[in-house]
Design goal:
CATH superfamily of the largest domain: Nitrogenase molybdenum iron protein domain
CATH class of the largest domain: Alpha Beta
Number of helices: 17
CATH architecture of the largest domain: 3-Layer(aba) Sandwich
Strand content: 15-25%
Shape: globular
Oligomer: single chain
CATH topology of the largest domain: Rossmann fold
Number of strands: 15
Radius of gyration: 24 Å
Length: about 425
């Protein structure tokens, strides 16, 4: 039984039934060795609510699901424990007439939850959740397993050493989760190095048999995924309308910037190409060793009127070589290491300054090297990605954009 098969089942059910609610679980381990269990076969638990089931008998509903899976997978899924509904069952906290108790284990989801209006329902956070500042009073449910102090090279070596042992980079406090009794826990599957992962949470939650919290796993690989993750959280909190409102509000703010980048003015002028010049950009997310940007950042660079030289949208940030930076010689260099604020980034700049060719770079000579707060903004896929876009626009086109972020979220080096 592989996670790819489970993912395929999920994709089929989402495409065919547009479910109002969907839960999937690979229960193969608990069925291994049972009488009649097939060697190597998977066992699934599926709960699905869809308007398409309206007026159908339970038998017909089950047949619809099984035929859809068989038709698109080319085989019948035998070990399928299926529960179908015409509308989703309300979550336990609604059935008891209350509000959800939420634990957020990534900084970006904490910001999403607060932006949706559920800050008062947060009962716990990760060690990295720090915005809005009021959430820092909440109990901390995680910690890093390595010393976070040191140079970028030293931190890189510590993280790699832990991963080589097949261990998790972070620790989840199961006893604290048991004490907090959350209804919903939000985590992520995008990067096991950047934040607490779904695997870390599942290992801790397996001890919480009495509360059975719902785990929401975010997976922002690209900007489009970010909008879906907002909706995923909103749906989990039974507030999809708030998700739609937040997404529309953030998209409208971004659209104003992209429109002005494309025309050079607030309103397009007919018959003339007034688009702003597009500088080539190297966005650096780690200094030693060098790493470029990926995921949502290439898209934001393009939206802000730049030409991204390293990394691809929707893919993990790639390592890069010093020689590649010299060869492409970008117009603009933005340095925004993951997890670093501006003072820490400024300290790390000595690594680049020690390179004899540093002063020959076009961006250095033209004073187009910028330091940015990667911890709060660019590397954190929360609502403040809009501010990240605004900052990029300020850096690339200072004569056209002034949002007031200079000296706070970014500075000229």
């Amino acid at each position: 039984m592989t996670s790819s098969t489970l993912q395929k089942i999920k994709e089929i059910l989402l495409a065919v039934f547009a479910p109002l609610h969907l839960e999937l679980k690979d229960d193969s381990a608990s069925h291994a060795g049972h009488a009649g269990a097939r060697s190597g076969a998977g066992h699934y638990q599926v709960v699905i609510a869809s308007a398409l089931f309206e007026g159908k008998s339970l038998l017909e509903q089950h047949r619809m699901v099984k035929e859809a899976l068989k038709g698109m997978m080319g085989k019948e899924i035998h070990a399928l424990q299926l529960k179908t509904q015409t509308s989703p069952q309300p979550p336990p906290y609604l059935r008891r007439g209350g509000f959800p108790r939420i634990v957020s284990l990534i900084a970006s989801s904490t910001e999403i939850i607060c932006a949706l209006g559920f800050e008062n329902q947060l009962v716990g956070r990760s060690h990295e959740c720090d915005f809005p500042a009021s959430v820092k009073k909440l109990p901390q449910c995680t910690e890093a397993k390595f010393n976070i102090e040191g140079t970028s090279y030293e931190i890189d070596q510590r993280v790699k050493a832990i991963l080589q042992e097949g261990l998790s980079v972070y620790r989840v406090f199961a006893d604290k989760l048991r004490e907090l009794k959350p209804d919903v826990i939000v985590t992520q599957v995008q990067c096991e190095v950047c934040a607490v992962s779904e695997k870390d949470v599942e290992l801790a939650v397996c001890e919480l048999i009495d509360t059975k919290p719902k785990i929401i796993s975010l997976n922002t690989n690209a900007l489009e995924d970010f909008w879906e993750d907002i909706m995923k959280v909103a749906r989990a909190l039974d507030a999809p309308e708030k998700g739609v409102e937040l997404v529309e509000r953030l998209k409208n703010r971004m659209q104003k910037i992209t429109s002005q980048v494309g025309t050079g003015c607030a309103a397009p002028a007919s018959g003339m190409d007034l688009s702003l010049p597009r500088p080539t950009v190297a966005f650096i997310e780690w200094i030693d060793p060098l790493m470029s940007c990926g995921n949502w950042m290439p898209t934001l660079i393009e939206m802000a009127g730049g030409i991204n030289l390293f990394g691809e949208a929707g893919k993990h940030s790639p390592w890069m070589k010093w020689e590649e930076l010299l060869q492409k010689n970008p117009d603009v260099i933005v340095i925004s290491p993951c997890g670093y604020d501006i003072p820490k980034t400024r300290e790390e700049m000595k690594t680049l300054l020690s390179k004899p060719e540093w002063s020959t770079l076009k961006a250095v000579q033209n004073q187009k090297v910028f330091l940015a707060d990667g911890n709060q903004f660019f590397n954190r896929p929360g609502p403040r990605l809009v501010e990240s876009l605004e900052m990029l626009a300020e850096m690339f086109h200072p004569g056209h954009f002034r949002f007031g972020h200079q000296g706070k979220g970014w500075e000229r080096f």
